[in-house]
Design a protein that fits this description.
Strand content: 15-25%
CATH architecture of the largest domain: 3-Layer(aba) Sandwich
Shape: globular
Helix content: 25-40%
Length: about 350
């Protein structure tokens, strides 16, 4: 683990960040740390920032958060779903500290939750995959079977099926947010089974690099990863956490911080996508069309009727999934033949 800090001054607000992966993962943690750095640059001497990277979910997280509190942290951002219980426990014990938990659903008077509608970009990736696949076999490398990941698997598949009803999808779980070796191995296994479009909910560029080595295509995760696979990347989801971090730190400085449940999307500029590359013009045009419809609020993929893989109606015809439904999603949509672990 690495601890980053600047010189402390009594008048400064101290904002602390706990990360599940290394800041150099070029994915999830990398983008959170970009947000921290941009907040530091925005506020300058008004704040100091602390961070610890590669913290396991569970007892390690509680220990690190307690360490931040001991060092005088005024606001603590816990940036992984598995930190939820530790964050809630310590929020109750330390009511004068503000806590912000990413991707969770439990709150307290001094504890917010926040997330991004990354499924919006994932659906556009599915549109591209459905149009680009030559084998009608796409695939997905999942980290852990939690609602956030299940939701994106579903919307990716739904996007592909919208363009190509013959698409089938295989899923492999690596049970890690960041393990380049396991991620690459998973991609190789999936491609050996016929997959030619590699999507991932893990944080290294290894699956994309494996796709490039075999002349296949895929999508960057959380940041633009084209430098690692210039011939394979079709686009990438880009997580932009900076506006939220700046807003909540400013609220703390101004004395009007409030607990909230934030779920930002394309319309807020916090869910972005890398340029369309390595694809025909008609695919790029369709990707842009769907992207713009989502951003403008004209199209929402999770609109009923949506039936799960067991034949149960989950979202009635004409209804749009609520945020609560999306944040508790633990089923695969119809057409995905795998079972949720």
């Amino acid at each position: 683990m690495t601890l980053g800090t600047s010189a402390m001054a009594a008048e400064k607000v101290t904002a602390a960040f706990i990360y599940v992966g290394p800041t150099g993962d070029h994915g999830w943690t990398y983008r959170h740390d970009i947000g921290r750095q941009e907040a530091q640059a925005h506020f300058g001497d008004q704040i100091e920032t602390l961070y610890v990277e590669s913290v396991k979910e569970g007892p390690d997280a509680e220990r690190v958060i307690r360490g931040f509190i001991a060092r005088g942290a005024d606001i603590i951002f816990t940036t992984s779903f598995g930190y939820m219980e530790a964050t809630l426990k310590l929020a109750k014990q330390f009511p004068d500290v503000k806590f912000e938990h990413a991707t969770g659903y439990k709150r307290a008077p001094n504890m917010s939750t926040y997330g991004l509608r990354l499924y919006q970009a994932r659906h556009v990736q599915g549109i591209i995959a459905g149009m680009m696949t030559k084998t009608n076999k796409i695939c997905y490398i999942g980290a852990y079977p939690i609602p956030e990941v299940i939701r994106e698997i579903n919307t990716y598949f739904m996007g592909a099926r919208r363009m190509n009803p013959n698409v089938k999808m295989d899923i492999v779980w690596v049970n890690s947010w960041y393990n380049p070796g396991k991620e690459a191995d998973a991609a190789k296994v999936l491609m050996a089974q016929g997959c030619d479009m590699v999507a991932q909910h893990t944080d290294s560029p290894s699956p994309l690099q494996a796709a490039e080595a075999q002349g296949k295509h895929g999508f960057g995760q959380a940041s633009d990863q084209i430098v690692f696979a210039p011939k394979a990347q079709l686009t990438a989801t880009i997580d932009n956490w900076s506006p939220y971090y700046i807003r909540k730190i400013q609220a703390l400085i101004d004395g009007n911080w409030e607990s909230e449940n934030y779920f930002g999307g394309m319309i807020d500029g916090v869910v972005q996508m890398a340029p369309w590359t390595n694809m025909p013009d008609d695919v790029a045009d369709m990707a842009q069309k769907v992207h713009d419809e989502i951003k403008n609020g004209e199209y929402f993929a999770f609109t009923g009727p949506i039936t799960d893989s067991n034949g149960k109606l989950q979202i009635p015809a004409g209804e749009v999934a609520t945020d609560l439904h999306l944040n508790q999603m633990m089923y695969y949509v119809d057409g995905i033949t795998s079972k949720v672990p």
